[in-house]
Amino acid sequence: MTLLVQEQFASFAVPSFSAIRSWLLRVGLYALTKPLQRRTRGWVWLIDHTIQIGTLKILVILGCPLDRVPFGERALQFADLQLVALVPMEQSTGAAVDKELDRAVERTGVPAQIVADQGSDLKKGITDFCNWEVRTEYVPDVAHYGATLLERSWSDQPRWREFYSQLQSTSGKLRQTKAAYLLAPRPRSKARFMNVGVQLRFAQRVLKLLTRPVPHEKALAYYGWLLDYQADLAVWQREHGLVKTTIESLRVHGLHAGSLAELEKTWGPINGPDSTQEIATSLRAYVIRHKPKDEATRFVASSEVLESAFGKLKRLERDQSSDGLTGLVLALGAMMGTTADEEIRQALEATPEKKVDNWVKSKLGKTMQWLRRQFCRETKA
Fold first, then answer.
1. Which of 9, 54, 280, 307 is the most exposed place for a label (fewest CB within 10 A)?
2. Average pLDDT of the segment spanning 288-310
3. Whole-angstrom distance between the N-terminal and C-terminal Cα of the chain?
4. What mean pLDDT is predicted for residues 322-326?
5. What whole-number distance in Å separates Cα of residue 152 and Cα of residue 148?
6. What's the mean pLDDT when you consider all of the chain?
7. Which residues contact 318 (CB under 8 A, 6 or more apart)?
8. Domains located in the chain, CATH noted
């Protein structure tokens, strides 16, 4: 078997990990510095920070010409986007963000639209930028907006706090037992309302086991308390459904003149308690406030693809993601767009490895990995 494998694969060279990493970073830096085409209708920018450990943040701007967004067909994908800016920051402030947005204009021209979450520094910087560049509209990311609505509504409800606490307590009891297959999905440590739907779906599945003619024995033993929350869960699922439907629709179709009518048709009658009415009212207000003034225009409402890019970067970094940001952050540029063989050749010819090394040294400085190596060297027995 070994000889067969050698005969099959010994006839060509296999690139080493370091070679592949070098190519990836060179293509990424080329994407960050190459000229970008300015468009008559402007670009849409998606903006956020990526951070791991330490104090260093990276401000990332991905962009797509607004007239190339595939509205009505699908959500934005990596292939639609270009890396506009990649800016390391020790301290992110509204003024610092505003300054970098001004610099990014040199690459794409003034954007028609910016999409970002409502983090204080981002919001302040984008608002200041839009106050100066009146042609640019700021649209908060609809997923973060919806999660914030749920958090504000549910966090004030004693029943929700009791339910959530009981769910975590039950998981603690189950973890080291034979019934561990009944563990509830683990919530996020941060922004847990972004994926609270998985906990609600789990609770509904358990309720099905509890309300059968013959209840599931283990489910009843550990989750019998859920029977007291059937009415609450129905309300929470309805409210989560309103938010989820809004996100899914705007992610694909964007914000436009008919968005509100389409959403209300999809929602159906809004019945239920005041909390449900308030969430629906807030979603309507979001659409009315941020839809384009021009009926022929559509705006992007979701920066989800940027979150996906950060997730892919962390998977690429693997264990390194726990050691702070490194030059691999340049791989974001290589992930974006559709790069033909000829452009890859141009990128590698125009971007020698020394250019990447200089960028990493000047922009990232002494990384956590470098400092860790120094620490290990100095404390070696």
1. 9
2. 93
3. 44
4. 66
5. 6
6. 88
7. none
8. 12-141+303-378 (3.30.420.10), 146-290 (no CATH)
Look at the block and give the residue holding tokens 């050691």: 323
**Do 180 and 158 touch, CB atoms closer than 8 A?**
no
Reading the block at residue 191, the tokens are 């922004």
Number of H helices, E strands in the chain: 16, 5
Locate 111 and state its tokens: 């954007």
The highest-confidence range among 39-43, 125-129, 189-193, by mean pLDDT, is 125-129
Name every residue whose Cβ is closer than 8 Å to that of residue 226 and which is 6 or more positions away in sequence.
Answer: 203, 206, 207, 210, 233
Per-residue burial over 239-274, b if 16 or more Cβ lie within 10 Å, else e, is bbebbebbbebbbbbbbbeebbeebeeebeeeeeee
For residue 349, CA distances in Å to 149, 159, 224, 353 come to 50, 62, 66, 10
- How far is Cα 46 from Cα 44, in angstroms, rounded to an integer? 7
Q: Quickly state the pLDDT bin for 3 (edges 50, 70, 90).
A: low
